[in-house]
Amino acid sequence: MLNNENKIEQSLENRVLRIENRIFKNKRVLFFLCSFFYVLFSHSQCAMCRAALESEEGGVQAQAINDGIVYLMVIPYVLVAAAAYAIYRIKFAKKKEEK
After folding, report:
1. Where do transmembrane segments lie in this chain (predicted)?
2. What's the CA gap between 81 and 75, in Å, rounded?
């Protein structure tokens, strides 16, 4: 009888741990997506570009330079995220093999 109670207790603990892991993973994914899209919607401009573009009428050229700066800013984040994902997958595969 005591053995069955231990098994039930362990299975409940395992379920709780699995649920906590899912929540933690979901929070990480949500944080990554929010920070990624926040970067996409931000508008940046260096001081020299701003000075050169403020003298011109119309915002087409200014918007094009803004988009180019944001594009250049996003690429390193995407590369780092891809490398982190690859490392995570390699570690996860090793853990599966050990079990």
Report:
1. 29-53, 68-88
2. 10
| Two structure tokens written together for 87 | 């490392």
Backbone angles phi, psi at 55, to 5 degrees: -75, -20
Output Rg (C-alpha) for the chain, integer angstroms: 24
The answer to whether residues 25 and 60 belong to one domain is no
Q: Which tokens belong to 79?
A: 């590369």
Classify residue 55 by its DSSP letter: T
Q: Per residue in 80-94, pLDDT tens?
A: 999 999 999 988 877
pTM, full prediction? 0.40
Q: What pLDDT, on the 0 to 100 scale, is given for residue 55? A: 67
* Pair (63, 89) in one structural domain: yes
